[in-house]
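Subject: sequence -> structure tokens, single chain

Hey, anyone have a minute? Need the predicted structure for the following. Not urgent.
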Amino acid sequence: MSSPPPTPVVPAYDPDAARRTATMSDVTASDSALRRFLHGLPGVDAVGLEGRAASLGTRSVKTTAKAYAIDLAISMIDLTTLEGADTRGKVRALCAKGVRPDPTDRTTPQVAAICVYPDMVATAKEALGDSGVHVASVATAFPAGRVARGVKLADTADAVAAGADEIDMVIDRGAFLSGRYMDVFEEIRAVKEACARPDGESAAHLKVIFENGELATYDNIRRCSWLAMLAGADFIKTSTGKVAVNATPANTLLMLEAVRDFRAAVGVQVGVKPAGGIRTSKDAVKYLVMVNETLGDDWLSPDWFRFGASSLLNDLLMQRQKLSTGRYSGPDYVTVD
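Reply:
Had a minute. Here:
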């Protein structure tokens, strides 16, 4: 007896029966096919999305669970400095803090990564040594991305050659908003290829930044999520932290739902990174509740969820000290980044 035909791979929530016979390779075979697929995704119920995000934010997390959540959040931070005034000394100091966030308490977890501009990758790599903390680098002319593709690829390749373990790229929002989806898809694919290491070792992981505040609608965020994942993103990321609207509970929840549905459809797990505007322990715990309720334990790991932040770590450390000692700590007890 002959073996049964393979089951077609399609989005789990796609109501279009005709598209249920298409594979993901068919979806990306042409500009018109990709456009039909993205515009065929269900529209987002904005009221329902915002209501669920707000509801999840009311969950109470206390005592032992709160201590666990704080340590987990620390371990998920991409500790970031992306300023024109960055110096090697500042990057080295940030690396030291990432490796040992609280010098008085060796049980404090390390952060997941130090995120810097490409020209600071070598400095960060040397400072981190064999600590296990990764080096992440923004690339592709972050944050605007307004350069030719060849420059973006060179930017990526330089960061990888200098030792970056992870690349955070920005999409061409102009191309996406004008409906040139295949251009965006092909650029993500090209950057993914540029993440390969010259020595043939495992490639740097690719995080794709949408800049949700510029995408304007929830429908666009859902389309962009699927587009990036189809192109090979290892993580999808909300924002650069350089615009007025960055990560919000609602737009992050929408991206969490997208990675859930993508894994159900194609069997590939993709991470999520909210960035920009997450500054307090209370905020971080709300996001972790959202991950747990939407995706479960599979994503409750630095391998699959990150916070892009600079000031969040200090608040987490102060709350951690409060839980440990019973006394409120203050900013004088943590380093100023």
